[in-house]
Write a structure and sequence with these properties.
- The structure is a single chain.
- The protein is α+β, with helices and mostly antiparallel strands.
- It has four helices and eleven strands; from the N terminus they run αββββαββββαβββα.
- Strands 1, 2, 3, 4, 5, 6, 7 and 8 form an eight-stranded mixed beta sheet that branches. A three-stranded antiparallel beta sheet has the order 9-10-11.
- A hairpin with a 2-residue loop joins strand 9 and strand 10.
- Helix 1 packs across helix 4.
- The two termini are 24 Å apart.
- Keywords: Hydrolase, Magnesium, Manganese, Metal-binding.
- Its cofactor is Mn(2+); Mg(2+).
């Protein structure tokens, strides 16, 4: 649970309020995700889920546990934790929430504004993924994601606007889209904390 990087991230996120999206004229549905960190053999890992190809939105993509905010969720954080519990089949009461990252939009047709929260999962959890929402779970070493060779960008166009899409590769796994943008923000903070 405790690692110097997690402590430093918590301090950094507590001193820097997350940026809200400013997209005038665009009505986006609220969503929230948990960016799950954990320690495996003392090394920080980032957890991703692969979505089944049968889903309506972002089928077959890698994502963080999360989803749209329901009326029962008093806060976006509650959304992220509820969805994590439902998708991974774990008890989320022991999750150490380090803070929030900047909101990101989904730029396809799904139209969500996503509030990401960074949280550390307790040691020794046994995942029981919901097969309706999760095809499988992959843990990726944070050190691998920090390697320049793991990351590339490609230009993309949506609604007449050109922007860069981030792709992160781990073996046969390719992480991109809104998840890639959230990951890029997390990694930029982590790099800044790792500088001597």
């Amino acid at each position: 649970m405790h690692h110097p990087l997690f402590d430093a991230l918590e301090t950094q996120l507590s001193t820097r309020p997350p940026q809200a999206l400013r997209m005038p004229g665009l009505v986006l549905r609220e969503a929230a995700v948990l960016v799950p960190l954990l320690l495996r053999d003392g090394e920080p890992q980032v957890l991703f889920t692969k979505r089944p190809t049968t889903l309506r939105h972002h089928a077959g993509q890698y994502s963080f546990p999360g989803g749209s905010r329901d009326a029962v969720d008093p806060t976006p954080l509650q959304t992220a934790l509820r969805e994590t519990r439902e998708e991974l089949g774990i008890d989320v009461t022991g999750v150490r929430v380090l803070g929030a990252l900047d909101e990101v939009p989904t730029l396809g047709g799904s139209g969500f504004r996503i509030q990401p929260f960074v949280g550390v999962l307790p040691q020794g959890l046994e995942y029981k993924p919901n097969p309706m929402e999760v095809e499988f779970i992959v843990e990726v070493p944070l050190a691998h994601l920090m390697e320049p060779t793991a990351h590339r960008t490609e230009p993309h166009r949506s609604r007449g606007v050109e922007y860069e899409v981030d792709f992160y590769t781990y073996g046969s796994h390719v992480i991109w889209g809104a998840t890639g943008r959230i990951l890029r923000h997390l990694l930029s903070l982590t790099r800044a904390l790792s500088q001597p």
